[in-house]
Write a structure and sequence with these properties.
Blueprint lengths: L4 E5 L2 E4 L8 H5 L6 E11 L3 H8 L5 E12 L4 E5 L6 H8 L7 E6 L2 E2 L5 H7 L3 E4 L13 H12 L4 H14 L16 H13 L5 E5 L7 H18 L2 E5 L3 H7 L2 E6 L2 E7 H6 L4 H8 L49 E4 L2 E3 L8
Parallel strand pairs: 5-10, 5-11, 8-9, 9-10
Antiparallel strand pairs: 1-2, 3-4, 3-6, 6-7, 11-12, 12-14, 13-14
Helix pairs in contact: 5-6, 5-7, 6-7, 7-8
Subcellular location: Cell inner membrane
Membrane topology: Peripheral membrane protein
GO biological process, one term: transmembrane transport
């Protein structure tokens, strides 16, 4: 059975059936990517007397937070982005939406080069690219009511009248499980889960095509996490949204994402369909990451793949494989540059040792 998208109406893709993780591989072959990122990099200059003296001596003083990241996301697809804290996941998300200006690289939404837009042209594009931030409390304005916060994107990005905006806000609040009764409340009157639902409502009220989810459940307890995840999945299926889902919760990524990209020290080291990556992790860092996930069975036993040492400084990234100083499998060849290559159909990995026996 071949999967294809039906006609597009009012800036929204409608689907003959919901897209699920088991269908995403054949479906991706016939649907062009909605978002395409190539060679995305972001460096932050260090300040102070020490870095200034280093620059005078010709030494590098930039923090390479993101270094040559490339991926694509198809319409209706969820790409999970995982990695330890400080690897550059959130910086990638902010560069995609131009909340942080990338140093180099290309970000294309459909046929539009996002990195070249400025002023009103960039503002017109923002209705199609939105973000749900990690901290639901900090992302809300305590001086505004829920209605005013959710309505604000409509004031900026649409020409709807007051009555139309009011009706759209009521519809979106119902869609996220709150209802119009919450419209008059303020942030301090909401629970953590309700605050995150307001953030999600604000992100989807302009009917975007692409939404960045930057650890949307990390500040919530377990029961609320499951409700938010089910809500996000339902919104994706019903509205044809595409997600970049950033999370430390490997189990949540396994459930929600169609494909997974693993980041380490500013670069993607492995990328594959979710089922394939969890069943057959190829990169040593991915193996270490998955082996650290607890198993909810006290009698279960598995071999732990551990790394040695600490993460190197992003100011002084090792040559060749970034993991070679910590990897127990490292060999002399690991000191040579290692590109991201396709080790199996749809399975990309940056490791010299894969396929060497």
């Amino acid at each position: 059975m071949r999967w294809r998208c039906a006609a597009r109406t009012s800036r929204r893709w409608t689907w003959s059936r919901p897209i699920t993780a088991s269908h995403v591989t054949p479906w991706r072959r016939i649907v062009p990517p909605l978002l395409k990122v190539e060679g995305l990099s972001k460096s932050f200059p260090m300040r102070g007397l020490g870095p200034m003296l280093d620059r005078m001596r010709g030494r590098r003083t930039d923090v390479r937070a993101v270094d040559g990241v490339s991926f694509d996301i198809a319409p209706g697809e969820t790409l999970g982005l995982v990695g330890e804290s400080g690897c550059g996941k959130s910086t990638v998300a902010r560069c995609l939406l131009r909340l942080v200006e990338p140093t180099s690289g290309s970000v294309r939404l459909d046929d539009t080069e996002v990195t070249r837009l400025n002023g009103s042209a960039l503002q017109r594009l923002r209705h199609g690219m939105q973000m749900v931030f990690q901290d639901p409390t900090a992302a809300l304005n305590p001086r505004l009511s829920v209605r005013r916060m959710v309505e604000e994107p409509l004031r900026l990005h649409t020409t709807l009248g007051p009555s139309e905006r009011r009706a759209r806000v009521d519809d979106v609040l119902v869609a996220v499980g709150l209802g119009p009764d919450f419209a008059a409340r303020y942030a301090h009157e909401l629970s953590g889960g309700q605050k995150q639902r307001v953030n999600i409502a604000r992100a989807i009220v302009t009917d975007p095509r692409f939404v960045v989810l930057d650890e949307p459940t990390s500040a919530l307890d377990v029961s609320l996490r499951s409700r938010i995840i089910l809500l996000l999945e339902a919104l994706r299926e019903n509205r044809g949204l595409s997600y970049l889902f950033i999370s430390h919760d490997i189990a949540t990524v396994k459930y929600l994402a169609h494909r997974v990209a693993v980041m380490y020290l500013g670069a993607i080291v492995e990328q594959a369909e979710t089922r394939e990556l969890f069943a057959n992790p190829l990169h040593p860092y991915t193996r270490a990451l998955l082996s650290a996930v607890p198993i909810p069975d006290p009698d279960a036993r598995r071999e732990r793949f551990a790394l040695a040492g600490e993460v190197p400084s992003p100011v002084d990234i090792p040559a060749g494989c970034r993991l070679r100083g910590r990897c127990p499998l490292a060999q002399p060849i690991c000191a040579q540059p290692v590109p991201l290559r396709e080790a199996a159909p749809g399975h990309w990995v940056a490791c010299h040792l894969v396929g060497k026996g």
